Amino acid sequence: MTISISRTLNNNSSENEFKAAKVLESLPTRKPISQIIRDRVIAAGDPFFANDSIAHHISELEREELKKEIEVKLQSVFDSLVIDTANDHNTQETAKRVAKMYVDEVFKGRYHPMPKVTDFPNAKELDEIYTLGPISVRSACSHHFVPIVGQAWIGIVPSDRVIGISKFNRIVDWVMSRPHIQEEAAIMVADTIENLIKPKGLAFVIKAQHMCMTWRGVKEPETKMVNSIVRGSFRNDPYMKKEFFDLIRAHGFGD
Ligand SMILES: Nc1nc2c(ncn2[C@@H]2O[C@H](COP(=O)(O)OP(=O)(O)OP(=O)(O)O)[C@@H](O)[C@H]2O)c(=O)[nH]1
Known about the structure:
Blueprint: H1 2-25, H2 33-43, H3 60-80, H4 94-106, H5 108-111, E1 119-121, E2 130-141, E3 147-157, E4 161-163, H6 165-176, E5 179-180, H7 182-197, E6 201-210, H8 211-214, E7 225-232, H9 233-236, H10 238-249
Parallel strand pairs: 2-5
Antiparallel strand pairs: 1-4, 2-3, 3-6, 6-7
The structure holds guanosine-5'-triphosphate.
């Protein structure tokens, strides 16, 4: 019995090694792509914290190569977790799936460029508040890499430029698709919108649940974190701030 178990383990680990070697074979024999990108980011003096975008330092081809490198590293994590990925039909391709999920989906805000945002003149010189929400928030916490799920609301008092309303959802999705802590995420979304349209007033509210507090840790199913950023006329004028919160309360914020 002992012999057959040890034979199975040996077979599995050699199959895993063979699989990893096959993926590595297809990679060029130079520095790992992650190192090449990292050197480039450092040379440019750019930060590369978990919640920073490094998309402008990566080509599309390099992104594909990066996924292969991540796949190999993830496979070794699964090997260390003593999971028989060679024989378990459920986890055979998991390293590849997770690598793709990180780079192209849940952390695409680090590796893919910001969506195209067209702006238009504020032809009628609207200087009233408009709000948008709820906007779905999907992110992951930097501490445990588990999901943050919630909603956000935006308030704008425009200046001379406006953008299509769907672009707010796209910007929130792009910025939030990185590992984050919520306080910094809220500031990053607000900064991105401010840089794009320089509104006279900007408010951003985010309400989200952190799986690191529900699925694990304190296992608290109801706690949500709320952050609000108010800038320009929303900060200077208490009536405008109140109007914004009244408006979003009417659109689900208080639920
Ligand atoms: N301020 C802030 N904290 C967060 C956020 N997301 C997760 N956290 C918290 O970050 C903390 C990480 O703390 P640590 O004590 O290093 O990690 P831990 O030992 O796993 O902590 P527990 O979650 O309490 O088990 C946890 O208390 C999380 O609840 C966030 O967006 N903002």
